Structure formats: C-alpha cells, structure tokens
Amino acid sequence: MKIAMVGTGYVGLVSGTCFAETGIEVTCIDIDNKKIDNLNKGIIPIYEPGLEKMVKRNVDNGRLHFSTNLAENLSGAEVVFSAVGTPPDEDGSADLKYVLQVAEEVGKHMTDYLVFVTKSTVPIGTAQKIKKAIQTELDKRSSNIKFDVASNPEFLKEGSAIDDFLRPDRIVVGIEAEKAEKIMSRLYKPFVLNGHPILFMDIPSAEMTKYAANSMLATKISFMNDIANLCEIVGADISNVRKGIGSDSRIGNKFIYAGTGYGGSCFPKDVQALIKTADENKYSLEILKAVERVNNKQKSILFGKLNTYYQGNLKGKKIALWGLAFKPNTDDMREAPALVLIEKLLNSGAEIYVYDPVAMPECRRIVGDVVNYSENKFDTLQDSDALILVTEWNEFRVLDFSLMKKIMKQHVIFDGRNIYDSNEVNENGFDYFGIGR
Fold first, then answer.
1. Is 266 a catalytic residue?
2. How far is CA 210 from CA 20, 266, 388, in A?
C-alpha cells in the first residue's frame, strides 16, 4: 500500500513514520526545501522521543521517503493525507488556505482514484470545501477520475506521540463512501490489533470530535486552575482536592492538575476555532469562552506571586526559570506560559536566566537573546533571587537543597506545577509558593 503525507510538521512526520513502521510505503511531502533536505540527511525538525531512530530505520528500509513534489508522488497512492497547518486567523477561525492548496494540487495532478484525508484539525464543513476544490480542478481537465474525501483527526500527545499512534485508544474516521471505508480499514488494521476500535462516522461528526475532545480537556484544566485559585483564598490545598475528585470514576484523574495554564499547538487554537464556529452559527459557547479567559489569566499567576513576594520591585532581581516548553518531552513553545512570564519579567526590569533540556534553541528563535541561556539547571541559580519551576521535566523533580542554599542569593521557590513537597521545601530553609496550596 502506498500513501502520501502532505506536511512534515509534528502530525505529518509522526503519522507518516508510524505508517511506514507497519510496512506501508510512505512519502512525506513539504514545500519547505530546507526541511526536506534535512530530513533526507536524517535531521529531524522537531523533538519527539524515539522519532529520530524510527525515521532512520524506515528510511534505511526503503519505506519512508521525503519530497517537495506532490505531483510526482500521486501515482499509485491510494490515500493522500493533508497534515498541513491550520493556523488561527486574527478572529480565531482556522485558516484553511494551506489545506485547500493541497486539495487543488491533488485535483490538478491525480491520475487514479484516491481518498483525500484531512489529518489536520479543520472546522466542520471543511471536507465539502476540499471536495469542491478537487472537483473544480478535475473539471478544468475534463477528467472523470473518481475520488472520496474523509476526515481522520489525530489525537497525539506531544512527548508520547509514537505510542499514541501505534497503540491508539480509538481511531476516528469520517467517511461518505463504502469504498473509502474499506481502504481506511485496511490502512489502519495493524493499529487495532489491541482491540481498540476504528469508529466510522459521518464526516461532520469526525471533524467535530477533535474540537470537542480538545475543548473538553482544556475545560478540565481551566476548571482546576480556577478551583486552585479559590483554594488559596479559603485555605484549601488543590493537591488534596485533586485526589478527592480524581478517585471518582465519573471524573477520572487525567487533566486535573493545577498549573500555569495550557499551551501548545492544539488546545489554544482549537478552543478559539470552536468558539468562532459557534459564533458564526449564532450560538455562543459560554463555557469555552470562560475556559479561554481563565487560561489567559492563569499564565500570569507565577509572575503575580513573584511580584507580590518582592512587593512590586523586581528591577535588577535575578530570576531563574526551569523549563520553557509548554509541557515536558517536547521543544514546543507555542502559547507556552513561559513566554508570558518572560515578557512580564522583562517589563519589570528583572534579569532572566533560563534552562530547558531541549527547548532553549526554540526559545532563542522566538525571543532572541533578551534572556540568559544556561548550560544546566544549577547555572541559572547562581546568585539568583528566586527559582520558578515552569515545566515539570523529570530532571527538576528532586532538589539538591544544600547546593541550592549555597549558590542562591534568596531562598525562595515558586512551583508552577506543584511537584515539590511544600513541607520539605520549608524545612530546608526555603520559602515555597505553589498553585492553589
């Protein structure tokens, strides 16, 4: 079986590589010549545990290829995936120009029946626009080649994407035709041997499923952050509250950790896009609008705690930041709380020293040299006035209090992920501030 994966970003590269791992011949296509050249040299553009070795293995075995030419790779392809970006417009709606460009290109150059599948997160109704774009190009050629469209949203978690793809909880596929269903069933057969299902449904429902899933998870996060802030006011501990509600099987223990707000490439833009879709249909998603407000406010909470501690005078203070990525095991800083914190610290006149195991090159690309980059976590602490834990990488979980007391000027820790025991921190001579504790 042969497929084409258009877009070599996070979703496209992981998906294409995992398909190749099962013996499918995959060509990943991107218009970025430098990115394709690097991929052909074994240089991976993103950080994802295990991905580099898997790419190399499948390239060496002749199952995974990289190209900038979609037209040359349509012949023999039974499925073409669109995994290009759908960035938010200024009004919050998803920008579909790249998806539709791929559809037009397919319509111009396809030579036989294929299934065009959207892997990107796209608003409800996008499949029909894709269908129209392909058919328009076929009509220009006076061609009667048949095709089908499908929606196959991804549910990958950055940091564990390979395992999510190879051993999925479920696979959602929106289809219109029986032929497309058979092809997608054959494509995904190796991934459902663990007994988890392929859920076939109508295309609008599949498109909505992705937005609803991410919005539900974002809602849980903002709800817990809102409750955490109330806990601080009334003297409760959000960590105990989390255990109390997480043991309820109706609620579960996932995505109920208080912190500094959600970030990344999915939750912020998907919540915005779903709100926009509802507004366009004259319906207001009040809960999601509140989710977004709470999240935007939460990203400033660490700065607020630090600013209060130093009574509004941060000028000249040396602040150490541990963690920059929006979550561990990724270098993704899109919508990361660290960016909000850095901006506010800079505006307050503080000196910022940062360390992240993998995201510092990305931070340098985004903010430049306005912060100081450290070789390791302890370099950030030299003569520092505060430590702020922003991202809960494993290497930050155990503190060396004796060393930290020697090298830090002021002994205070702001724990943005509640990973430290407040009593232990206090007993070792440090002031401690968490979220909702």
1. yes
2. 24, 10, 33
pLDDT band at 127 (very low <50, low <70, confident <90, very high): very high
User: In the prediction, which pLDDT does 338 show?
Assistant: 97
Active-site residue identified among 18, 231, 266, 363: 266
For the CA atoms of 129, 131, 133, 134, the dihedral, rounded to the nearest 10 degrees, stands at 160
Extents of the domains making up the chain: 2-201, 211-297, 299-433
Distance CA 123, CA 203 (A): 11
Q: Flag whether pLDDT at 216 surpasses 90.
A: yes
* CATH classification for the domain delimited by 299-433, as one of 2.170.120.30, 3.40.640.10, 3.30.70.3040, 3.40.50.720: 3.40.50.720
Residue 184 has a pLDDT of 98
Quote the pTM value: 0.90
